[in-house]
Amino acid sequence: MRHLIQTTDLDKDEINIILDNAKKYLKQDVIQTLKGKTVITIFFENSTRTLSSFEIALKRLGASVVRLDVSKSSTAKGESISDTAANLNAMKPDAIIIRHKNAGAGNHLAKYVSCPIINGGDGAHAHPTQALLDLFTMHNHFKTSLEGKRIAIIGDIKNSRVANSNIELLSRFGMKITLVAPPHFLPQTDLPTTSEISSVIDSVDVLMSLRTQIERHDMQTYGSLKDYAHNFCITKELIKDKNLIILHPGPVNRNIDIEDEVLKDSRCKVLEQVTNGVAVRMAVMEYFILKR
Question: What is the rounded CA–CA span in Å between residue 162 and residue 152?
Answer without folding.
Answer: 13
